[in-house]
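Let's practice the habit of predicting before peeking. Look at the sequence and jot down your guess about where helices and strands might fall. Then scroll down.
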Amino acid sequence: MKVPRQNSARYRKTDSYLPNYKNCGRPSALNETQIAQIKLEVKKNPDHTLLELIEKFNLKISQSGLSRVFKKLGLTFKKKDTPCKPTKTIKCNQRTRQLARFTKTLEVGQLVFLDKCGVNLALTRLYGWGERHMRVDDYVSDARFERSSILSAVCLSGVEASVSFSGVLNGALFALYVEYVLASTLNVGDVVLLDNLSSHKVEGALDPIFDRGVCLFGFCRCILRI
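Done guessing? Here is the structure:
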């Protein structure tokens, strides 16, 4: 039996005819030096985009290819966290169970969800690259009062009582919204669900809702009234 030449060469080098799977496949587009430079740069500036890294180090790789390299390195794209900002943990398991028991007695059409969202005008990236299960500690500018906000209620029939304004929500503005916008859209028996925002706790702000026979439930702080 004649042995192929390449197998003979492999046998002379390894004393085996078994194929070598170690160096098979397409070689990596980045060498170890480039990978080390990228890891160091990401550690310094975690909010770099893939395109910025490719242009900065003049890499011959596509954005999808660099994304796969990041995945192998265990780097994921996540929201940044300011190191000096303490993480507040609110224990609301008891309130969550109370809400679960309470909602079993309701019809879906009775639920009205009230919430606010805002658009950050600081032009600062809020996400960066970091290792799995690790926070991305980097500077995030405080632009809480430089934003546009939307306050709206969502129910089974759709979006209702929507208003938009510049800045952030405060107690006085929330009280005006409840009195002149939200209250007129509610019916007797409706249940309004809202979060634990400080502006929701202003004394007298929710009275127009209670006057219409509406039940209110606040997450993490029970304020049930009929």
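How did you do? Residues 26-73 form one domain.
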